[in-house]
Amino acid sequence: MASALLLPLLLPSAAFLAQPRVRQLGHLCSTPLSIARAPPRSQPSLSLADLRERESRGEIVAGVGEGRELPSLSGINTLPLPLQAAVVIAIALAIGGLTALLYGPVFDAVRGSWVWSLSRPTWPILGAIYLAAGVAHFTEAEGFENITPPNGTWGFWYTPFSPRFNVYWTGVVEIFGGAWMMLGFGAQLLGVSLPAALGPVVSDAALTLFLLTIVVTPANIFAMSHNAKFPLDIETPVVGHVVRLLFQPVLLAMLLEMAQPTLLDAKVNLGLM
């Protein structure tokens, strides 16, 4: 159902491979370009003219590694850093606001309807999609690293880890959360009772994936702001990035809804109820 439609949005390689190839990069493996060598700052270490010259010589490619410093299709990375930060924060706030709107009034309006009764039981299928995406973090690590914002991006972004390490640890969490959700969902389908000590398995997994989705959302914003490509030979139009960002609140709202038993347990255990 609805959750199955989210596969291309959770697993970028599946979505982008279905798009027409705008630019072939068969020479990537034979050039000195590598994601690991991308400068750890959002401001170009070279002038725009130098970057254009290197691009014309085939030394860098727009949207890949150092080529992410070239003007993006969205134009966001051409703005002064304070304006870049303002745009990114505005996008993040919009995602949060839409998540609250969907989880609250929208879900309440359809809760109990035939649409809700038909689709809601299928939501744990998201676990399989996250599991596949987590595996892709290792099989397509270079592509995921390319859309991971390095420190200094937008003038404020910082993590204590390298982009590659961020790709790996988020992949591990996706694999765990997705597998845990599928365990609970599979048990429900088979009518098998899991040990009570495991707690609400699907709900626990949903909360894990909810928090993870928040953590990785900046990568989707970075892909739009800096035209960062994944796969490395596919150029996504701005509208494609916008659609992906619009699905973030849908995913977050669905996961938050599934996580309610875990959140309720937490409130009880903390004496908040």
From TrEMBL:
**Can you tell me where the transmembrane regions are?**
81-103, 167-185, 205-223
Instruction: Provide the alphabetized UniProt keywords.
Output: Membrane, Signal, Transmembrane, Transmembrane helix
Q: Which residues form the signal peptide?
A: 1-17
- Which PANTHER family does UniProt cross-reference here? DOXX FAMILY MEMBRANE PROTEIN (PTHR36974:SF1), MEMBRANE PROTEIN-RELATED (PTHR36974)
Q: What is this protein called?
A: Derlin
Organism of provenance: Prymnesium parvum (Toxic golden alga)
